[in-house]
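Dear support,

We are seeing what looks like truncated structure output for some complexes. This example has two components. We would appreciate it if you could run it in full and send us the complete token output so we can diff it against ours.
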Amino acid sequence: EDKVVQSPLSLVVHEGDTVTLNCSYEVTNFRSLLWYKQEKKAPTFLFMLTSSGIEKKSGRLSSILDKKELFSILNITATQTGDSAVYLCAVEPDNYGQNFVFGPGTRLSVLP
Amino acid sequence: DAGVIQSPRHEVTEMGQEVTLRCKPISGHDYLFWYRQTMMRGLELLIYFNNNVPIDDSGMPEDRFSAKMPNASFSTLKIQPSEPRDSAVYFCASSSNGEIQETQYFGPGTRLLVL
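Here is the complete output from our reference environment:
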């Protein structure tokens, strides 16, 4: 069965720290991997990754995918209290009729 | 725990038909969320419940959509009549606490195709 695993499940850091969030997956056929930030009721989209080795960046956030080792990382540099949220990783299988599979999320708390 | 359970996993229907999606949250979770995912709009929150009571339904697109939670272990999302633009993946999620930073556990989703 398709599965997405995230680690750590919970993380507490101080402002200015750099964090790395991990997402590993098992899917029969892979199409894309998505990262979301959830700080209120609905997750907001961060990145979609489809190709290995190509880093995507948005400000202090960056992400990269390794399709050989079946994982992705999300980096946040110079963290701020506003980065406190749950970060969700989701994988889209490349099979007709297969739904996205979400991981359990990493709860990040950034202390002042 | 089996996690959040959704049924059916896939639904294909004709325009104008009624569609009912079902969700069983994780036992003990007080919050239940319904989301819709499309490539165009991404992940959208439709409605969420706390202790079986709808709290915020501002994301429900129109009157054709309705959601109920008759008890703590079951919720439905109904579309009547369905339209092709309703085609999407509908996710149900639950959490033990509706506060910011509480992890929501997502179900596998229901992929709906309206012809």
